[in-house]
Structures are given as structure tokens and as C-alpha cells.
Design brief:
Layout lengths: L1 H15 L5 H25 L5 E3 L4 E3 L1 H27 L5 H19 L3 H19 L6 H32 L4 H7 L5 H18 L8 H7 L2 H25 L6 H19 L5 H18 L6 H31 L15 H4 L1 H15 L5 H15 L3 H27 L13 H19 L2 H10 L1
Helix pairs in contact: 1-2, 1-4, 2-3, 3-4, 3-10, 3-13, 3-18, 4-5, 4-10, 5-6, 5-10, 6-8, 6-9, 9-10, 9-12, 10-12, 10-13, 11-12, 11-17, 12-13, 12-17, 13-15, 13-16, 13-18, 13-19, 15-17, 15-18, 16-17, 16-18
């Protein structure tokens, strides 16, 4: 309710202020957004001990949904904190941007707390429609328009799979409510299984897993950098959070081999294709495909250990993926040569001209690569451990080998920053105080959860 009402209030604030006082309205909207997210995070912590169903059993509130809500809200908090300077830099500082963020957040939380397939659909579409608009928010740039239309066309097509899957499940069970379907314990009949597979296909698309990952590189490259970071981390976390509930309720034990193959192909495709990328946003896009494969390992067999692994990975993934895109967004402001703005060539020598930012990006890349003592290492460790505990040792071995391949392209970016001479002119003045603060907080989180993972695992274990 806080997220949804904040979205509406922001729309009103944007219309109340006259155009000649636009700067005041955008400042008010920015600080209001920060305050609203802080209030929502605080309130979510107060709900950790609740376990109940709301609105005629359409919404459920328990420790799992509360923890995922907190992760989503924290990710959106970092997004808003780092957005203001980037929007001003790209001359797209409009109030509706923040409104769209809050509407998409409402959709994410609906997906996470859904106890009904209809609510899952509504939440997914609310999130997706906002993402289509946000992807094309730099509407004067052809690349951004192309990003939005590609995402929209493919997303609309895959929505049909989700609806058809819901229709099959409803036709077989006579209900769309999770609680009712779980109590029936339906026999694994042909049409029921087909419905589950169709819904799973929609999840594959939204998480950017193989073979429905084709939209990710172009969309992530064309969208505003901060939006790309949010979609690739917070949006993906919301989808995986919804998958935890869906897989648990519908007892998806009939297709573990299919999920294992999807996970392996996703990791393989993401890591191998990322090796040859020369654009930092495309490199991180293919990296996000690979990470979707790692997370998918946790869904081969749903167990307390795998849920714990997925939740820890999602938390660390938001910190390192969003943090990396925040720094890339700041570098876009620093690099004055347009042709080198997001090129890896433009990152040569940045360690000498911008040591602090380069150090932060190095930490985020090390964590994405799974190198200790950062949280990304423990995220991969628990994911592979869950596969071993569920007797899928071969999946864990393949995942470890492919993650070693992934180390190469992360190290390549780090080498460019620290061991080459600068080739691009770098702006001396920056106005990225809020973005820098968000990146620092993310870094501290990666250190804290990497050195002492029990800091968050004690809460995640109660969820699992």
C-alpha cells in the first residue's frame, strides 16, 4: 500500500508544480521517494513474525514474503538514490520516472505475495508494463526506443504462454488459488503438467534464462543504465521470488532434469558469449544471463537448503549487479568521448584518473566472479552446495567450471582499468554524490555478508 500510494502521490506532485519550478518538483519527488521506501522497509521488518492470508486468500504474508519484500525494497532504494544525478545528466529528469519505479515495485511485491495465479499474472504484468516504458525512457535516442519495442513485443508474446498455462491449471483443478490447489494434491495429469510447463516458460523469459534470453543484451544496452541495473537485479529477484512460492505450492518434482538442463545451458551461453563483448553494458547483460543459470540450480529440487541458497544469492546479486551498473552510470558522466562511453576501450586507464570509482567497480566485478571475501563467493558456494545435497553433483561441477570461465571477462575489465594508459578524456567535475553513496553502501554490504554471512543467514534459515 505504501508503494502503490507513493506512485499516485508522485503523479500528483508532478502536476501540482508549474513548469517553471520543475527543479523544485523533481527535488521534492526525489526526497519523497527516499522517505517512502525507508518507511516501507521499516514496516516490512515489523511484519517478519506474521503468518496470515489477506483479501479472500489472494495475498499471503509470511516470513518468506517479508524477507523478499525487504530485498526488493532495498534494491529499489539503491536505484532511486542513484537515479537523480543520472537523470539530470541524460536530461530525462521527469517525475513520472519515480512513479513508474513505484508501480513496478508494487507489481513485484504482488508477484512475491501472490497466493493466486491471477494475482501472479497481475503483478507480473504491472511490473512488465512499467519496464517497457522505463526501457524507452530516453525517448530521443533511437537505441532506447529500439530497446523498449523489442522488450514489449517479446514480453507481450510470452504473456500468452503464462495465460494459457494458468487456463490449463484452472481447467484441471477448478481453481487458481494456491491453497485450494495444494489441498487437492492434483495428479500429474497431461494437461495439468502442460499448464505448469507453460507457466515455467514464462518464468524462463522473465528471468532471462536459456533459450528465451535473446532480448536481454539489446534491451539492457539501450535502456538507461540505472534502469538496466534495476531490471537485471531487482526485477529478476522478484521473478525468482515468485518462482519459490510457485515451485513449492505446485510441487514441481516432475521436471528436475529439465530445470538442470536449462540452468546449464543458461550458464554456458551467458559465460561464453560474454567473453567476446566489447561493450560494458552488453558484457554485464550476458553476465546476468549466466547468473540466472546459477540461481536456477536452486530450483532443481526445492528444499530448505536450496531456498536458503537462492535467497542469499538474490541478496548478494542485487548488491553486486546493481552496484556495478551504478558505477557504470557514473562513468558515463565521466567519459566525455561519446564513442567510448560504454566501450571497454573507454575504461582503459580509469584506475589512474578515477581510482575510487575504479576500486568500487573492481569489488563488484570480483564479487560477480565469485572471488572471496565478498558475498558473491558465498552465494555461489551455497547454490552449488544445494545441488550436491540434492544429488545433482554433476550440475554443481559444470557450474563451477563455467564460473571459472566467467572470471576471465570480469578480470579483463579490471585489467583495462588498472594496467592500461587512458585513451578517453575524463571529466574532472562530477555531481554523483547520491550515486556514489549508493555504491559505497552496496560495497559495505558485500564485505559484511562476505566476511560474516551468518549476519543474514540466521534470518534466511527461518524462512527456509
Amino acid at each position: 500500500m505504501i508503494a502503490a500510494s507513493s506512485a499516485l502521490v508522485i503523479m500528483l506532485l508532478e502536476t501540482i508544480f508549474p513548469k517553471d519550478r520543475k527543479h523544485i518538483s523533481e527535488t521534492a519527488i526525489f526526497y519523497f521517494s527516499i522517505a517512502a521506501l525507508a518507511a516501507a522497509i521499516t514496516y516490512s521488518f515489523l511484519q517478519l513474525d506474521k503468518n496470515l492470508f489477506l483479501y479472500n486468500n489472494f495475498i499471503r504474508l509470511n516470513v518468506l514474503t517479508s524477507v523478499i519484500n525487504i530485498i526488493l525494497l532495498a534494491g529499489m532504494f539503491f536505484t532511486v538514490l542513484s537515479s537523480r544525478n543520472y537523470l539530470e545528466q541524460e536530461d530525462i529528469n521527469y517525475g513520472e520516472y519515480y512513479s513508474l519505479l513505484f508501480f513496478s515495485l508494487t507489481g513485484m511485491m504482488l508477484m512475491n505475495q501472490a497466493n493466486d495465479l491471477i494475482i501472479l499474472f497481475v503483478g507480473l504484468e504491472l511490473m512488465s508494463v512499467c519496464f517497457y516504458v522505463l526501457a524507452g525512457f530516453m525517448r530521443k535516442k533511437l537505441e532506447s526506443n529500439e530497446s523498449a519495442i523489442k522488450y514489449f513485443l517479446l514480453g507481450a508474446f510470452l504473456t500468452g504462454f503464462l495465460l494459457l498455462g494458468i487456463a490449463f491449471i484452472y481447467g484441471y483443478t477448478g481453481s487458481t488459488n494456491y491453497s485450494v490447489i495444494a489441498s487437492q494434491n492434483p495428479v500429474q495429469a497431461q494437461f495439468y503438467l502442460l499448464g505448469l510447463v507453460l507457466v515455467f516458460i514464462a518464468f524462463i523469459f522473465k528471468t532471462g534464462s536459456f533459450p528465451l534470453q535473446m532480448w536481454i543484451p539489446d534491451v539492457y544496452q539501450g535502456a538507461p543504465t540505472i534502469v538496466t541495473g534495476m531490471m537485471s537485479s531487482v526485477g529478476k529477484t522478484a521473478t525468482f521470488g515468485a518462482m519459490i512460492s510457485f515451485f513449492s505450492v505446485f510441487n514441481m518434482k516432475s521436471i528436475p532434469l529439465i530445470i538442470a538442463i536449462v540452468a546449464i545451458l543458461t550458464m554456458l551461453y551467458g559465460n561464453v558469449v560474454a567473453l567476446v563483448q566489447s561493450n560494458i553494458k552488453r558484457l554485464l547483460a550476458y553476465s546476468s544471463i549466466a547468473h540466472a543459470g546459477y540461481i536456477m540450480i536452486g530450483f532443481i529440487i526445492i528444499s530448505p537448503g536450496s531456498i536458503q541458497a537462492v535467497l542469499f544469492y538474490l541478496l548478494s546479486y542485487i548488491l553486486m549487479q546493481l552496484g556495478a551498473f551504478i558505477v557504470v552510470g557514473i562513468f558515463e558522466e565521466r567519459i566525455t568521448d561519446g564513442e567510448l562511453k560504454n566501450s571497454l576501450e573507454g575504461y582503459k586507464g580509469l584506475g589512474k584518473s578515477n581510482p575510487w570509482l575504479s576500486s568500487l567497480l573492481t569489488i563488484f566485478l570480483f564479487s560477480l566472479a565469485g572471488i572471496p571475501p565478498f558475498a558473491g563467493f558465498w552465494g555461489k558456494y551455497y547454490i552449488f552446495l544445494s545441488a550436491i545435497q540434492n544429488n545433482y553433483v554433476w550440475v554443481a561441477i559444470v557450474g563451477i567450471l563455467l564460473s571459472l570461465v566467467g572470471v576471465y571477462y570480469y578480470i579483463k575489465v579490471i585489467l583495462y582499468m588498472w594496467f592500461y594508459e587512458p585513451v578517453a578524456e575524463s571529466a574532472k567535475e562530477i555531481k554523483s554524490d547520491f550515486s556514489f553513496t549508493a555504491a559505497i553502501i552496496s560495497t559495505l554490504g558485500l564485505f559484511a555478508f562476505g566476511i560474516y554471512p551468518e549476519l543474514i543467514l540466521r534470518y534466511i534459515r527461518t524462512v527456509a
